[in-house]
Specification:
The chain is elongated. Strand 2, helix 4 (about 70-80) and strand 3 form a beta-alpha-beta unit. It has helices spanning about 1-5, 10-25, 45-50, 70-80, 100-105, 110-115, 135-145, 190-200, 210-220, 225-230, 235-240, 245-255, 265-280; strands at about 30-35, 55-60, 85-90, 125-130, 155, 165-170, 175. Helix 12 (about 245-255) crosses helix 13. The relative contact order is 0.15. The chain has a seven-stranded mixed beta sheet with strand order 3-2-1-4-7-6-5, with helices on both faces. By secondary structure, it is of the alpha/beta class. Bound molecules: guanosine-5',3'-tetraphosphate (G4P).
């Protein structure tokens, strides 16, 4: 998967984003990091942890509608043990999003008490929303802005650009969209691969058949072949015997994706498997689990 490693990783861009985030940090009270619940490790940028050190923060485990609920619950506990509040959210339907504002107030409880003791009652709480591309930042902001009078309000402040947008979401909260593009950390080969599985990384320049075969092997290793078997009406035991390409071929045959000469159309099968995984049709699956 060397192709995955070489795409989209531009250290220059990361340096610029780092500067933009650093510049904005003093303007916010806390950072809400949105990650993909199916790949909680690969969808985080480790640079961010160093950047925001000392700032109160919260993790939003988004797309939890497509992740394995038992695994997501374990991740929430894992973060809690580290003293970090994590919320399960589904920003497509909005499930769990109403817990955001109360959770922010809870994380900042002591600070809010100090502000109030100084007479700063009603001081707005400012939160920076950060996350890698496609993780669901816009969806979150849209859901949080819903129900607020008018549209998602982009505030007119000096120096506000498309990359530095503030939203008033009610409840005394103001959100700052990620300044700059927070690229994922592609140096680890597995990170690129896992983000390609979920579709966070475009696969049009990747070898799709190889990617789909790797996905199936990954589902095999993580104990999800039962779901694969159910989806494609195949026996789990027979899938268990096969490698990734073997499984892909079996699935293509079962679906009747054949080309002239009776051979399986592996490309069409790969597109189907990847699309169905990304759409949550194979089931609720977590590629990265707490205890790996
Ligand atoms: P970004 O701002 O961080 O780049 O992400 P964005 O909100 O644009 O979301 C990227 C894609 O992920 C969108 O799909 C969005 O609908 C989907 N998405 C966001 N949150 C969730 C979630 O909790 N669950 C599910 N299942 N999907 C989610 P898209 O195909 O690019 O667009 P569309 O389907 O909305 O048209």
């Amino acid at each position: 998967m060397s192709e995955v490693q070489s795409i989209q990783w531009f250290p220059g861009h990361m340096t610029r984003t780092r500067r933009q985030i650093e510049k904005c940090l003093p303007k916010v009270d806390m950072v809400a990091e949105i990650i993909d619940a199916r790949v909680p490790v690969s969808s985080r940028n480790p640079v961010l942890q160093q950047l925001i050190r000392g700032k109160p923060r919260m993790i939003l485990m988004n797309k939890c509608d497509m992740a394995d609920p038992a695994e997501t619950a374990k991740w929430v506990c894992h973060y809690k043990e580290k003293g970090i509040t994590a919320l399960e959210v589904d920003c497509k339907t909005g499930r769990g999003v109403n817990r955001f504002a109360p959770a922010v107030r809870e994380v900042l409880r002591d600070r809010i008490a100090v502000w109030e003791s100084k007479g700063m009652v009603g001081r707005p709480i400012r939160v920076m929303v950060v996350g890698i591309p496609n993780v669901g930042k816009s969806s979150l902001i849209n859901k949080l802005c819903k129900g607020i009078k008018g549209k998602a309000e982009v505030q007119d402040r000096p120096g506000v650009t498309r990359e530095n947008r503030w939203f008033t979401i009610g409840n005394g909260l103001e959100l700052l969209d990620t300044p700059g593009v927070l690229w994922p950390k592609f140096e680890d080969k597995r990170v690129g691969e896992r983000l390609a599985f979920t579709g966070a990384v475009k696969d049009d320049i990747l070898d799709r058949e190889h990617l789909a075969a790797r996905l199936l092997e990954c589902l095999q290793n993580k104990g999800y072949l039962g779901k694969v078997g159910e989806r494609y009406k195949l026996e789990e035991a027979e899938l268990q015997e096969l490698d990734g390409f073997g499984m892909l071929e079996k699935i293509g045959k079962k679906r009747g994706f054949l080309v002239r000469g009776g051979e399986v159309d592996l490309d069409r099968t790969a597109i189907t498997v990847l699309d169905e995984f990304r759409g949550g049709k194979i089931g609720r699956i977590s590629i990265e689990q707490v205890h790996e």
